[in-house]
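Example record for the data management plan.
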Amino acid sequence: MSICRLITEADAPVLAGLLQANREFLAPWEPLRGEDYFTSGGQRAAIEDALARHAAGTALPCVITSGARVAGRITLSGIVRGPFLSCSVGYWVAQPDGGRGLATAAVREIIEIAFGGLGLHRIQAETLQENVASQRVLTRNGFTRIGMAPRYLKIAGRWQDCVLYQVVNETVE
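Corresponding structural encoding:
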């Protein structure tokens, strides 16, 4: 059973509610966001942007579902074709859905999509050093640690070091 599906504009109110309810929980792992981001209108704008990148072939923005209910987001971004055939993955699940295997299952599913339908060779993921839960999700899905990137992402208002992971599709010629 699929737990990832392409995001739609109709998801905006639900995502706004999830982001409002999980704002404190997600804050240590996310960039600083303006107040509008946590509204239906802000989410609608973010979804429109994500779907435009999807139409251009550079992103695959999805929601993570638990049954019929939206529980989080997962996105393949920075999709590059040509000799690179690579992308980056980012994801989150709402706090009440953590520890249930949803993120692990969603990453597994998005790998199948990236390596199958999209024909990509490599997926990269970045985590803050202290985000052990996300690191476990990645390693359970075959990602290996490839290094440390100093001051890599501006998260929670400051440039932070990130642990880099990758998984490679060995079947792509």
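Summary line stored alongside the record: Residues 129 and 163 are 6 Å apart (CA to CA).
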